[in-house]
Amino acid sequence: MSVVAVVGLGAMGSRIARRLLEGSHEVVVWNRTAEKAAPLVEAGAVAAATPAEAAARAEVVLTMVANPAALRDVTEGDEGVAAGLGEGTTVIEMSTVGPDAVHRLASVLEEGAGLLDAPVLGSRSEAESGTLTLFVGGPEELVERWAPLLSLLGSPLHVGPVGSGAAAKLVANTTLVGTIGLLGEALALAEGLGLSRAKAFEVLAATPLAAQAERRRESVESGEYPARFALYLARKDAELVVAAARKAGVDLRLTEAARTWLAESEDAGWGDRDYSAVLARILGSR
Ligand SMILES: NC(=O)c1ccc[n+]([C@@H]2O[C@H](COP(=O)([O-])OP(=O)(O)OC[C@H]3O[C@@H](n4cnc5c(N)ncnc54)[C@H](OP(=O)(O)O)[C@@H]3O)[C@@H](O)[C@H]2O)c1
Predict the structure, then answer these.
(1) Residue 187: which residues within 8 A CB-CB, separation 6 or more?
(2) How many independent structural domains does the chain possess?
(3) What is the reported pLDDT for 112?
(4) What is the CATH number of the domain that holds 99?
(5) Rounded to the nearest whole angstrom, what is the distance from the C-alpha of residue 8 to the centroid of ligand 1?
(6) Ligand 1 mean position to 282 CA, how many Å?
(7) Would you say the C-alpha torsion 112, 113, 119, 124 has a positive or negative sign?
(8) According to the model, what pLDDT value does residue 248 have?
């Protein structure tokens, strides 16, 4: 068993830390809002005062924070992860931040420290049950070394060198952003053309959006969108996708349009709701 530091104890990081504790690892935790560490300390984790201290105590450091700015805040500077790393310690970056942020992190780590990027697909319940998909970028030997740890969290898929995991995650989330926007527009069109909501769902059941429509039906009908993946994070992902595509010279006009629905919803104050609440926004915009 390893000594694992978890930096960032939001919806995902807190669940990952708990799962590691249940897997008999020694877990050191740090979170910007320190109170969020309390339930994990009660369950056996040790709280560190800074990300650097968490890193200094661990063999492997998992970072799971909101966005690229947060990743810089927890990894750089006197109190950041990079300042505390011992020789041979590995950093596994799990947030959704895009390849540029991962390359920047690689540039601030001392030689001798290992780095994998391993952002995840799946949400709170998958983090709890260890059934996430992890897109892993980094050298083969490091992936092999940490495969048992990653497998406790889900199914690792090694996609290439450092930064590839982050790239793969943007590809995956392009489908989330696009699908939810398209579903909202299909439902809005059905309403605009006078079809009942029930008939609209029957129609969608016969289309390529069948599974997504079925999954969201209860929320659309009840107006309740239980929080799993915050809308502010989905908007951030859409921005990352669009920026990465522009830089790579790839035309993503559909995703760009889907991004605007999320941006509008967040600007209206819906950032802390589940991202699927964008359906209510699209339907309500008629
Ligand atoms: N939720 C999901 O379903 C899901 C699924 C796959 C991937 N992800 C990705 O996983 C990452 C974490 O998501 P989450 O759902 O756990 O988000 P969350 O619940 O909103 O938590 C965000 C975490 O980032 C920390 N943070 C934000 N800004 C910071 C800063 N400037 N300095 C230090 N810490 C900062 C927060 O600290 P405080 O507690 O102090 O605010 C908190 O620990 C994101 O990149 C997200 O896109 C999420």
Answers:
(1) 197, 200, 204, 220, 279, 282, 283
(2) 2
(3) 81
(4) 3.40.50.720
(5) 7
(6) 26
(7) positive
(8) 97
Give the domain range for residue 176.
Answer: 168-284
Q: 133 — phi, psi (to 5°)?
A: -100, 130
Does residue 236 have an active-site annotation?
Answer: no
- Work out the angle between the directed axes of helices 197-204 and 164-192 (0-180°, nearest 10): 140
Quick one: which atom of ligand 1 is closest to the CA of 121? 6
- Tell me what pLDDT residue 285 has: 77
Q: Which segments in the chain show pLDDT lower than 70?
A: 286
* Residue where one domain finishes, among candidates 160, 185, 220: 160
Find the catalytic residue in 36, 169, 236, 247: 169
How confident is the model over 52-87, as pLDDT tens digits? 999 999 999 999 999 999 999 999 999 999 999 999
* Ligand 1 nearest-atom number relative to CA 234: 47
Report the pLDDT value the prediction gives residue 286, as an integer from 0 to 100. 62
Does 142 share its domain with 220?
no
Q: Give nearest CA residue, ligand 1 atom 35.
A: 70
Q: Give the pLDDT of residue 233.
A: 97
Q: Tell whether 56 and 184 lie within a shared domain.
A: no
Same domain, 101 and 23: yes
Hey, what are 126's tokens?
């998958």
Give the end of a domain, one of 160, 180, 206. 160
> How much is the pLDDT for 190?
98
Residues 85 and 196 placed together within one structural domain of the fold: no
